[in-house]
Amino acid sequence: MNSVGLLTVSARYARGQLSPPEVVLQRPAVTRMFLGQLPEAVVKTVPYLYSLCAQAQRVAAEAALAAARDEALPPADPLPLWSEMLHEHLWRLLLDWPQALGLPQAKDALAAWRNTRGREGLVGATASLLAEVLLGTSAADWQGSPVPGSLAARCLAALGKDKAEENLDLPTLLPAAWLPYWQGDAATAPPVNAPASVATAYRQRLHEVVEAARGLATGAPYPVAGAGEDGTGIGQTLTARGILTHGVRLQDGKVAAYSVWAPTDRHFADGKELAALVADDRWAELTGARRGLERAILALDPCLPYEVKVSVNHA
Predict the structure, then answer these.
(1) Range 155-166 burial, b when 16+ CB lie within 10 A, else e
(2) Assuming Cys at both sites, which of 196, 200, 206, 207 could form a disulfide with 168, CB separation 3.0 to 4.6 Å?
(3) What is the pLDDT of residues 195-214, one digit of tens each?
(4) Global confidence as pTM
């Protein structure tokens, strides 16, 4: 298994349809190393353990630990957080989605933008990338639909219409809702919102990249929240994949229990969300079915390597 884990998705193809996908999500138990540690050591270690979305992981840990100690949320510099969210969104929108839809990737545009990260020209480079490549308009002028001919417009045309109109705003952080689950007073974790269709998931990403670009340009506070009581704390923040949640329990000033619930852990806890995204689709042959399943996986966007296995059911 890869050091960050592995996702395996299996399905069978028969009579133009896919069977409900079977999902196996393997994650290394890295949070065990936090047990018995001082909170300060955890905050320093988290970004190195979770190299993907390291800034978001750090502030979620800080929020959880502050809540457990009944302290004010530490201030977070919004610029590296907005930049990190933009990077994850743009990687998918400029490389992975075009490739999945048979369209040219915008590799040079992404490489040029990445060269500006951490520099003064990042805001301008982001505005230019959205206007000249992805959307055909700047984040400031975004009205909800990409300009015809832009990369996003071509991707949406290939995906087809959304199944339903949904609220595409940034997700709302609700750390207090997680406290009963983390304290053992609730049997199940709070529900997570799943996209109604692959096209909806893509459109959600477009809206979020616009919000991230606006946040970067204006220096808006990055969404971080915490809730806690009796030495237990929940910290939440946003990533490009959804809400990231950290939970901690302190005893005698040290970590007695720690857990991380990433969007991938929620979306791929079983195969239900994937099954819903491909349930109404039909394909004339195996290759198309596999491609459809891969697009559904991309819509849920796992943060770790994954394998896809599609076989023919001859029964």
Answers:
(1) bbebbeebeeee
(2) 207
(3) 889 999 999 999 999 999 99
(4) 0.93
